[in-house]
Write a structure and sequence with these properties.
Elements lengths: L3 E2 L2 E2 L12 H8 L8 E2 L23 E4 L11 H13 L4 E6 L2 H7 L11 E6 L3 H13 L4 E6 L9 H4 L4 E7 L9 E2 H13 L3 E6 L3 E4 L2 E4 L3 H10 L52 H7 L10
The chain binds iron/sulfur cluster.
């Protein structure tokens, strides 16, 4: 996927949300050891990679999710992190979305020139339940950063978010149910409570997917297909577009890049019903959705 940068791969389970980690699931399917942490071959320097015409593969203005098969603040990755920060600094024209469960490690892992945060980097913490929300979000709120967000996924319990939205630092909240072997149910009431808290503070809330098992008004829904899950999430009407995130992207000279020169995501017809669309970096024209619709009714999930 063109919107994911995995400078390293592999991780150690850390909290309840890790129980059914998809990276472990996929590595096991491949017969690899998911706890082995290593820099990715061919992917480590993705933000600096260029096309044959010399232009960067990652266009100015794209939103790149970082470390989706590991954790950016994992101790085992300390030796490589400085290079990763340097690439994010060099590509000050690209948006980088960082997510961690190791909130207490962020401060010591920030680059020396972080100051009060970089305009092109959003720090997010995972809040899979109330306990982890109360543990990690206060740490995030105390950190210097230009952009902050929360990921309530896999949502495995209720999260009381309202107190953490009051001071306006949290700009975005994503939420989704769990998938893969042993997936725990997600409840509509939990998602609605978070959605209501975000609406009340005009904070963007994105309900990305229901997860395999979803409860609503005492009724249990089982949806193995991710396409069905994202469509159900979209149809729930719980997502909300709040105050836009004001990314200030700069070119190599430090000059702010005019909006019209920035990447604009494009979407396909079926994206209209996708719960992830509000925060998606757009279609990569990989054509997989055509294959899938050709094989409609399959319930296999695929993660590239
Ligand atoms: S932190 Fe993320 S990648 Fe690491 S084990 Fe937990 S869920 Fe998996």
């Amino acid at each position: 996927m063109h919107d994911i940068w995995n400078p390293w791969h592999g991780c150690k389970k850390y909290s309840e949300g890790c129980a059914h980690c998809y990276m472990y699931y996929l590595d096991r399917m491949r017969g690899s050891d998911p706890t082995e942490v290593y820099p990715t071959k061919g992917g480590f320097d993705y933000p600096l990679q260029s096309r044959r015409d010399g232009r960067y593969k990652v266009q100015s203005g794209e939103l790149i999710r970082v470390c989706m098969t590991s954790d950016f603040f994992l101790p085992e990755a300390d030796q490589w992190r400085a290079e990763a920060w340097a690439m994010m600094h060099e590509r000050s024209d690209v948006k980088f979305w960082l997510l961690t469960k190791r909130a207490e490690r962020i401060e010591q892992c920030l680059p020396a020139d972080w100051g009060d945060g970089w305009e092109n980097v959003m720090l997010n913490v995972t809040a899979e339940n109330g306990r982890r929300a109360d543990e990690r979000i206060p740490i995030l709120l105390r950190l210097p950063a230009k952009h902050k967000g929360v990921m309530c996924a896999p949502l495995i319990g209720p999260v009381e978010l309202a107190p953490y939205l009051a001071d306006g630092q949290i700009e975005q909240v994503l939420c989704g149910g769990e998938n893969y072997d042993g997936a725990r149910p997600c409840d509509y009431a939990w998602v609605k409570a978070i959605s209501d808290a975000c609406r009340a503070r005009n904070v963007t809330f994105v309900f990305t997917e229901t997860g395999t098992t979803f409860w609503k008004n005492g009724k249990r829904y089982v949806m193995p297909s991710k396409r069905v899950q994202t469509e159900m999430a979209y149809r729930s009407g719980l997502s909300y577009l709040g105050k836009p995130v004001e990314w200030r992207l700069r070119d190599r000279l430090g000059l702010e890049i005019p909006q019209e020169e920035l990447y604009v995501p494009h979407f396909r017809a079926h994206c209209k019903l996708c719960g992830m669309k509000l925060t998606c970096n757009g279609c990569s024209d990989c054509g997989r959705c055509e294959d899938e619709s050709a094989g409609a009714g399959t319930n296999s999930d695929n993660y590239a």
